[in-house]
Each structure stands twice: as C-alpha cells, then as structure tokens.
Amino acid sequence: MTEARVRRGLCFSGLARLLPGKDAGHHRAFGAVLAACSFLASACGEDARADRPIPAFTDSLVGSTPAGSPAGDDGAEPGNSPNDTGSGSAPPSSNAGSPEAVAAPTLVPPSDSTAAAPAAAGPSADAGVVTAPGTAAPPSAGPEAPAASDRVLRVLAVGDSITHATCWRAVLWQSLMQSFPGRFDFVGTLTENSGCTPAGYDRDNQGYSSSLVTEVVAGITNARTCDPACPTLAEVAAAFAQAEPDVILMHFGTNDVWNGRPIEAIVSAYSQIVQAARAANPAVTVLTAQIIPMNVTNATCAGCTCANCARDVPALNARIVSWAAGISTAASPVRVVDQFTGYDAAQDNVDGVHPNAGGAAKIAARWYSALEGFFR
How many CA atoms lie within 13 A of 12 on its CB side? Predict the structure, then answer.
C-alpha cells in the first residue's frame, strides 16, 4: 500500500467519525477532511481516481418484468410543454432530523414549476433488481487492484424531473452514507435545491426537468421549457466526460411515453445515451430503470391526459429488458432495475407523476439494492 493510500485511509477514518452528525458544522467538517484527503493523495503523486477498477457487480435480488398498470413522469399532452414538479424527502435515519414539509404542487400545462414534499426511509426489504437475460457481469478487479475500502464509486443519475427535482437521491445518499461512508461520490454537472433533507446531501446529478430522451438525441431543444435548458446529446456527452461516472442510474422516458413517442424510438435513444457514457468511461455500468407508473387525471394534473400511459409504460418496461440484454457487454454491463413493480401511482406520487415521501423511499431502495454489490 502506498503512502498516499495510508494517508487517505486515515482521512476516511476521520470522515467516518464525522458522518453521523446532522448539523451544518458536521457537513463543513466533512468537506474539510475530504479536501485534506485529496491534498494528501496528490502530495504523494497519486490521483484519487487511480484506484478505479470497480468490484464486480453482485445481483442481489431478482424481480419480475411488470405487467399492465398505469404508468409515467413529467410530460404533457403532445405538442405542449411538460410540467415538472418536485417532491421532497426526509433521510432514512433517526439522526437526520425532521423532514421539511412543503405544500404539494399543482400541474398546469404548459408552465413548469418545482415544489418539494417530505419523503422518508431507506432501503426496504422488497427492493429488487431485474437483470436482463444474457447480461454478462462486470469483470472482477485484478490482483493489482486496490482494496475495496480504497475505491470511491462515482455515481451519476441521469433523467428528467423525476431525477432532477425530487428527493429520492437525497434518501439514497443518506442510506449509502450510513452503509458505505467515504466510498462513493454522486457526480454530474448539475445541482438543484428541491428542499430535500439532509441539507448537506450531495446534489450533483444530470437530470433535466421536462426533457424527452428522444428529443435529447435528436438535438431538439426548443419544443418545451426544460430546467435547466433542454440539452443536446453532445451536451450530455460532455457532462459525462467531465463527471467520469463509474455507474449511471438512468430513469428516463416518462415524458416520451406521455407525449406518445414510439417505444422503439425511446430505446434507440437509450442506446445513444449508453454510447455517450461509454465514450467517457469504457467500463461504465449503466443501471436502467423500468420507469415508475403515473396516474394522470384532471384531479392530479389540470388539463392533462395520458390515455396511452396505462398501456405504453408496461410495454416500454418489458422492452427495456430485451434492449439491455442486447446492448450489455462484459466490459460495460447494462442492467435493469425494476422501479415499476410495487409502486402505486396514486399513493406514491405527489401529483400523479412525481414521487412523494413513500415513492422517493421506494425508488431509493431499489437503486440501493442495485448499488450495494459494488461495495462488497
């Protein structure tokens, strides 16, 4: 073990003692120690990311492909700008303090808004991972690979407002911090403040509220109002190159279904996202969600309709399994995470579309189960 790793190990030991704190002072101390770790590593001529090979992925639980139920995200009727509204969350720990309650939003096309509602709880016992048939597992680290405790897994979440403007990332961060402190980093070129707790969670992400993945790859940026601006594929690829993720969490396509985009066009767009990720890191693992259901009615979204969603979301989710099997490689696996099964669009969404407290907890739990194998 090099001197840099010894010093970094001492730093992370210090971090572990700071992490249970829940006030701003602890978060500032966390940042100071983390900066010191990076300085010590660089002082010995060793980059913090030199520790990268990532340990082999372990399939924890196997779920089933969902069948017929309402589904969705943050779009609008075809030709209109989708509406985006966030939901908040509370951390899954008794140490996290009280959640910040915010009034539930109202969706009115074609405007975009963001609001937060409290969410809670960490990984649940029913968290499941669907592994695409025929998908190869990532290669194990070689004999020269550093110890697992030395690795920092770089995790990037990409998608629309369900990724950008809701609080499942805060819940997931809290859960991972409790189990694997100092061993992961949320990355991305975007941040946001949706009122999620804990206040110091890592907000880095690559979510674009109101975006359609089919429009991203087609370079269409003016069909609707996104937050931030609707990106092109080149811009997403540049963000991947800057962030250098080891793992991508992709929940994308809800707006596409809501706007009636063909399923084959959606999975084709997924393929281009995967290729952009591989250009940034040829060994990236892409965890692709079978998207959550939605319940679009006049009561939940004034003036909105989605007559096709009950049919098309389950159809997309079924297609995702075969798509992942076809694009996955041994070097860069694409795995399917079942975010659909057990998710109640009426009970788990704050506005029929975006996750509330219970929904955020369910989404975080499924991602947690998909990620924990990287730390074993």
Answer: 20
